[in-house]
Task: inverse folding
DNA sequence: ACGTTTGGCCCAAACGTTTGCGCAACACAA
DNA sequence: TTGTGTTGCGCAAACGTTTGGGCCAAACGT
């Protein structure tokens, strides 16, 4: 766009104007700034750089992509970008990518296997250099296939199989939650566990349940549900209708927790005093809610950044290890003594 | 990625296998499916198509981009993707783009002029065919420049100058809000108006204030603030500390409204009974809050879709008109008679 | 003075597409 | 037979870049 194709600034146009050959210009501008020897004389190099700057030269990715076989494009697949957590992770990814001169393209898989495959195909068709999956499913058939085909990717937020991943330590996070509620004196507790195919939900639940079990306490009630507000509301609805209603609910996700707060109110319960509810992720919203929500902070943006770094290492041919980031608990008014 | 470069499926590899020329294969596969005459014999065409399918041929965008000068890439600039409203708009854009075989790349401008310019530059360097701005500022100097340089773009969500845009009818939306609150009997009302550079905030405020003014009522208090929860909370804090505290608050954004709810609670006020609060955008959250939030629905995803459609028309050389989508009000428990 | 190195640059090929042009073969009419 | 069209393809050039291999001249070693 911009210029009607008339005067695109190209290596050639620069070379011609300077009476040099296009390859010289290319070498200077690609400047393996390290050695500096092989490029050109200090003088010509300077002239080239000045003119390039002046004309606002920007290498054409089609040209270089065609030649090098690399696109400097990274594909990012997420369940949905309108999930705040994923949006923040993506922001981290994109930020880090920008700093390295990479561009990201993203797509929603809606946690649907077919969409996942389709969108991945589209990204490969775009010739992405590598992929980041934020929507890994625990039965990772698709990822196994992709890896077997030589696909380069890392996972973020959710782990699966032993594909390299950057996640929070969700088991520990769940344990922290249990420790907090148990410390307040809650023994009848329940977990709104999210979708069973997501490691985030299952790991947090496992950590939570493990804590209670290790102490010989009654096993917490576990209920699966979608990760969103409506899902949390429905699950809490069920929990609160039971005769042996729990005194505290741990939702593995802030939005589910907010839904649970709604259900609590419908049951005439005041969150914090009649019923403790806590979430996970420490969404910016959590602190600002009418009743501030106890939650577990995970460094979302940092997770995204690291995932991208991992991917670049992978693309450079290095071996990469999975990373687990440490969560921390932040207590607020939504949880209190029973 | 994927194949180690060894056996990429290319027009040539298909042509060779079939003993045809690459141009023939190209013509068949690009099939101007309409005329059908000029391509090849029905038989060869079928053979080509079958083999391409079988090998999983995907045209290389670098090659075609280089040749055609088009990238089938659309750049989308937003204030921040972690703003749910923008995320949903972006989903609409990307969905529509996908259906047309276009790919979107996105970036956050954080409503910062310099970042905006920088990120736009990066997108142009990527040779996007066109741009969609979701972060237009009312003083549209940057956009004017870009348009003067022949840049192809449309605006979404926020309008500016008379650049083509797809937005909701925010003035009407503000009016609906005023009508609702006034209908309930509120005369001392206030507006948390968002940032003054965003048409969304100013238009909604103008519609709201206009309604009260047209009826000769006292002019609503107007307070600007950031669009997020913390901003809304701070603004509400100020409003509620006044001796002539309003009985109803219209926040031009659900998140600001949620912040306001928090402030209300700090003041010992029960939202709905002691103080009416309403938001805007009808975020999925609004309905699920402990105290469900009255809000104005705008067809976010649809807005995104239409913006992309507009852009494609623009790119096809057609003239495009701005569009205004109709908002509707949905009343919930957070607003009631004073 | 003569061989050898090295600095500085150019040459040319290749990456995968698209597309205007042209050509052979055939059909048909006159 | 010649002329006129049509169908079915191939040819070749171009898009902008990168990169291995030159080649010429100057600098250096002996």
Result:
């Amino acid at each position: 766009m911009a210029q009607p194709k008339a005067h695109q600034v190209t290596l050639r146009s620069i070379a011609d104007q300077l009476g040099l050959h296009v390859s010289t210009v290319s070498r200077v501008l690609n400047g393996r700034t390290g050695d500096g020897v092989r490029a050109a004389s200090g003088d010509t190099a300077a002239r080239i750089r000045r003119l390039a700057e002046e004309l606002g030269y920007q290498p054409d990715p089609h040209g270089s992509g065609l030649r090098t076989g690399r696109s400097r494009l990274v594909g990012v697949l997420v369940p949905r970008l309108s999930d705040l957590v994923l949006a923040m992770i993506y922001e981290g990814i994109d930020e880090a990518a920008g700093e390295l001169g990479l561009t990201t393209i993203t797509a929603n898989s809606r946690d649907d296997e077919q969409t996942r495959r389709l969108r991945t195909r589209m990204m490969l068709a775009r010739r992405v250099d590598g992929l980041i999956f934020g929507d890994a499913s625990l039965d990772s058939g698709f990822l196994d296939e992709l890896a077997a085909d030589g696909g380069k990717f890392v996972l973020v937020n959710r782990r699966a199989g032993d594909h390299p991943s950057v996640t929070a330590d969700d088991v520990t996070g769940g344990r922290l939650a249990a420790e907090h509620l148990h410390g307040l004196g809650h023994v009848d507790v329940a977990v709104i566990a999210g979708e069973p195919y997501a490691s985030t939900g299952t790991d947090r639940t496992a950590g939570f349940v493990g804590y209670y079990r290790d102490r010989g306490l009654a096993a917490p009630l576990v209920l699966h549900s979608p990760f969103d507000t409506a899902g949390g509301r429905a699950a809490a609805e069920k929990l609160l209708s039971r005769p042996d209603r729990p005194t505290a609910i741990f939702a593995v996700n802030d939005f589910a927790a907010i839904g649970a707060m709604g259900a609590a109110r419908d049951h005439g319960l005041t969150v914090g005093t009649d019923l403790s509810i806590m979430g996970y992720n420490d969404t910016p919203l959590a602190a600002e809610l009418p009743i501030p929500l106890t939650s577990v902070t995970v460094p979302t943006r940092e997770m995204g950044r690291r995932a991208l770094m991992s991917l670049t290492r992978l693309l450079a041919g290095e071996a990469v290890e999975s990373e687990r980031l440490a969560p921390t608990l932040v207590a607020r008014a939504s949880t209190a003594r029973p």
